[in-house]
């Protein structure tokens, strides 16, 4: 494939959060994903005391760590240490955090209970992972297993979405006889290289592949992808 502009597509709402919104059926999180809201900016405002319009990339990175930490079982003590706030403040934030997403909190507890009962977890498409730590007599190892159980279902389902998108895109490019090719997948992004004259069609196929990756319907949510083009990956950012 000759060097040419790249087309980069990603979900405006991180794919893991789209999967979580569908798995937990939480209206608030589903609404945020449907609007393409930045999931990581609100914690920056609440925890760091920063106005939404003043949130920096560093603030967002810290808030992103909070989001994923709480989702996968981070407690008040660890949160307080990471943010430099008191344990009491951290505990209050955690309570407010899950009050906004009550069905997410309920889904997490249900997932943990099922994992303890079965010793394994499954993604929305049925991929299975057995977690030996769930059977450990060591409380620390068992807690680690519970965190891995929740993480596996969410991130495993998100990975399933991306793999299905990659397969769809590859088949579409072949069917259209294009020279464009898929170069890279990073989290919720697919990077495609295409000759300049193929860029419009390749971009269309890329978007269709991403937004149609729930073709078997286990999630039942509308997926949205954003496509950008440029002479390099950096230019697509």
Tell me what you see in this structure.
The chain is α+β, with helices and mostly antiparallel strands. The chain has ten helices and six strands; from the N terminus they run βαααααααββαββαβα. It has helices at residues 15-24, 27-34, 41-48, 57-71, 76-83, 87-99, 102-118, 139-175, 199-211, 233-236; strands at 6-10, 120-122, 128-130, 181-186, 189-193, 226-230. The strands form two sheets. A four-stranded antiparallel β-sheet has the order 4-5-1-6. A two-stranded antiparallel sheet has the order 2-3. Helix 3 (41-48) crosses helix 4. The longest helix has 37 residues, at 139-175. It starts with 5 loop residues before the first strand and ends with a helix.
Question: What's a concise summary of this model?
Answer:
The chain is of the alpha+beta class and 237 residues long. It has helices at residues 15-24, 27-34, 41-48, 57-71, 76-83, 87-99, 102-118, 139-175, 199-211, 233-236; strands at 6-10, 120-122, 128-130, 181-186, 189-193, 226-230. Strands 4-5-1-6 form a 4-stranded antiparallel sheet. Strands 2-3 form a two-stranded antiparallel sheet.
């Amino acid at each position: 494939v000759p060097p040419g502009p790249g087309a980069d597509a990603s979900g405006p709402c991180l794919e893991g959060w789209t999967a979580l919104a569908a798995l937990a059926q939480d209206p608030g999180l589903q609404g945020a994903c449907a609007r393409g809201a930045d999931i990581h900016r609100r914690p920056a405002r609440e925890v760091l005391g920063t106005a939404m319009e003043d949130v920096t990339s560093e603030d967002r990175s810290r808030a992103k760590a909070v989001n994923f930490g709480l989702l996968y079982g981070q407690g008040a003590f660890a949160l307080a240490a990471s943010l430099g706030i008191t344990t009491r403040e951290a505990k209050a934030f955690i309570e407010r955090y899950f009050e906004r997403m009550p069905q997410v909190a309920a889904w997490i507890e249900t997932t943990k209970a099922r994992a303890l009962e079965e010793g394994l977890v499954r993604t929305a498409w049925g991929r299975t992972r057995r977690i030996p730590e769930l059977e450990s007599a060591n409380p620390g190892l068992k807690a680690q297993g519970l965190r891995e159980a929740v993480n596996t279902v969410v991130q495993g389902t998100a990975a399933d979405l991306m793999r299905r998108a990659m397969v769809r895109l590859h088949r579409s490019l072949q069917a259209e006889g294009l020279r464009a090719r898929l170069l890279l997948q990073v989290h919720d992004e697919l990077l495609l290289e295409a000759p300049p004259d193929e860029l419009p069609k390749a971009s269309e196929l890329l978007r269709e592949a991403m937004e149609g990756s729930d073709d078997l319907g286990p999630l039942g949510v509308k997926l949205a992808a954003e496509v950008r083009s440029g002479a390099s990956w950096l230019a697509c950012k």
